[in-house]
Amino acid sequence: MTGKFFLIVLVAFLSINSIIAYDIAYVVKNTASPKTAITNIFNSQGLSYKIVYDRDVPLTDFSKYRIVFIEEDITNRNFIPYDYVSTLFFNKKVADSAWNLAGRFGETTGDNKIKAKDILHEILKNTNKDQENNILTYNARQKETHYIKKKPTYVTNVASTSDGTTGIVIASEINSLTRVRTTFFGLPDADYWTSETILMFKNALRFEVSGQDRDGDGYFSDVDCNDDNPAINPSAIEIPYNGIDENCDGYDIADVDKDGYCNAGYIIKNAALQCSKETGN
Question: Using CB atoms within 10 A of its CB, is residue 143 exposed (0-12), middle (13-18) or buried (19+)?
């Protein structure tokens, strides 16, 4: 697929319905219920979610969601638009669908640690590691750890099995054209996660949400200070005295003539940047 055609398809996909209905589409098997351990984390991060059953995946408009989260292997995993919407998943077979791994994946129940590979990656931020850069993942033994044996070159190896060689447990991709983010988080037994794994999962959610252009103004959320309003972005024209930071420079213009004093009656939010000579409102 050429870059030009790819972008045309992306624009068509996003223009179907650019209004975000929920932050997360939580995809589960037809007879399954969402895990409380997972929904508690969504709630703690202020993220809304809607349950999408496997049978409904082919007809679901995923452009209405910021993230598609897939907890287990599902029959309709190939209907997920991985190139056009950010995805986060636990299962090795879903990773196979997202990255065309040709069956190069596996799982183990004998490892409750992972080894940090990309130590500076956002998903590993603030995690505690031992001297060998291992991170404790589960509070119990014999819990599932999924891994991929070989990754595409454009995918980042964030953390591997603790031996460093069996496979990759956490992997991520930022699509070079669309900035869509894809994350494999191969630790599905959420009820037994350590505090470190909970932290990594929260970091993964933040990683997934950042870098999106939800309002379609050409700026992604890591630089757009209000990615739900296309009139607000780093290239927008700042409107004085309205209390809104349209151009994302950190403040509203309150001193048009730049004499150090705000317009009379203006409520100062940042005296150092707005009206340096003012001592009050």
Answer: buried
